[in-house]
Amino acid sequence: MQRVAHAILSLSVLALWGCYEGGERRLVAGDSFAEFGSESVDTSAGESADSGGSMGPDIGDGSTSGDGSTSGDPSTSGDPSTSGDPSTSGDPSTSGDPSTSGDPSTSGDPSTSGDPSTSGDPSTSGDTGTVPPEDGDRIARDISLTTVSINQAVEVDVGDGNQLIPVSSRNGRIIQDRDALFRARWQVQPGFGTRSLEARLTINVGGTTTKSYLDTRTVSSTGSANPGSYNGTFRWAVDGADIQPGTTFSVGIYEVDDSYATTPLPSPLPRLPSSGSSSLGVDSGNYEVDVVLVPIRWVYGSNDRTPNLNATNVETIRRTIWERNPAATINISVRSQPVLWNNAISLSGILQALSETKNQDNAPNGTYYEGLADFGCFAVNGSSCSNYGTTGLGYVASANSWASDQRASISVWYDPQSSAETLTHELGHNQGMNHAPCGGASGSDPSFPYSGGAIGVYGHKLDSTAIYSPSSTYDYMGYCDPSWISDWSWERIATRNGLFTTAAPLPPRDGILMQGIIDDDGTEHWIRLEGTLPLDAASPDTFVELWGGDDVVTRLPAYEHELGEGDARVIVVQLPEELEDEHALEGITAAVLETSEVRTPLGLDLLP
Ligand SMILES: [Zn+2]
Predict the structure, then answer these.
(1) Higher pLDDT among residues 33 and 348, named by residue
(2) pLDDT at res. 583
(3) Which residues pair with 293 in a beta bridge?
(4) pTM for this one?
(5) Ligand 1 centroid to residue 487 C-alpha, Å
(6) Which of 354, 362, 482, 530 has the most Cβ atoms closer than 10 angstroms to its Cβ?
């Protein structure tokens, strides 16, 4: 078992990008065929026990008191499988009638957290749910409204003082139908005396229903809001149903004590906008992610294991993806038939089997086939069977429809939450993401903007009190913990998610593709897929030569790309018509992968 564990862990070895250069398995262009005909593959890739930090335990709750992940409900928009949260009875989003609502921000409110800036549970602020008058006289004195932001996982600033930040200048998009935490920061001015203030968020959806959300807290004379804490700002949790392209809003800070009404009005007013309301600027895209969980049944030796994908565990996975993805809804299902793997453990081999399964199922282009395999308790960090650190492997998939069958990944099943986070990382590869630069993750994206792979802006787990630090929380596409999503990844994944929201037709499948993975240790896994590789999808100066005896039978343009983890590569070629028949390949005696840099012999015995 130890030997097997070692093999699998080496898949996620964090080999530095570039140390592949000069690897034994590569030959330089110009080497004669005879020289590489017998070349053995390099098995010397470095190995360590590091199984990938991004796959660690549940994310710590940053600077907040009490992790809201235990607060129950999801009140997840659009998911019928989610049971209602008993604590949301006062939530206007569940009643649809603001006149009967209590304070919407009370769900999971840690009013006992001891945060000195908190006056107590805002639900006691006396909000009746009716629309308060625009009481200009009560606008707060000697205080500025500095930043108004919306957080659906990553903080997006929408207001700077009285000024609305236009959509084109924002750091991220607002996703419709997705829950949101609105936050407002302040700065007190000289002469301000510590007292209770009431901040009001007013939202109008589609010009019909106006809802008012109140938050009252004690503001100290000594300073400003603390955005690193859930209770360090004014904040309101708003249901996704109210986050629509036609939504308008305003935010203002008001005196609780009426006696201030007689003093001069401040300038500028602590209100966004100064008067009236502004468009929220919600993106009109329809963001949904379709995930099919594929259980792997592993039958090998005395093992016969299938992961336990019961409703609770599926919900853990759905929720983990949803919390971290720019999407309104994660449509998740479990493939009724497990995929059988009756061989030694090989994540690349299983990954290819998943690709093949998606191809055979004729699953839509935009559907992700996310496999889960239970190999027993060894498959955790350091084989210690402690409850953290699983691993996985996924294609970094192109958005083009020909790559439909690369929207697939495999994650090791152990602790449900750890595995759900691993799966979310592998799904990120399937969504086109390379690694964020942290923890030695291979092939990190050079355009990632934040040093150390940090998330860059405040993160928030919806329906919880968790606020994640911009600098000491790390993008989940790296290998560091604690992890969350950066605004940079948010935008990129949103763009990808937006492509697949209409039922994308199946890609053309006019022929047979040969798809191979060359693993870190040189092992090859080949499959045949029905499909079409467009000529412009091939990588520049990259070919697979098929040889019969001493002759090149054909030289095929090839797509070649790294997989998510380590140095594993995927290669795809379109077989010419005369070689489409399985038996036609029997005459092929050798094959070579040629890039502009090197020629690599391919293992013939594994050709399909
Ligand atoms: Zn990865």
Answers:
(1) 348
(2) 86
(3) 334, 370
(4) 0.79
(5) 18
(6) 354
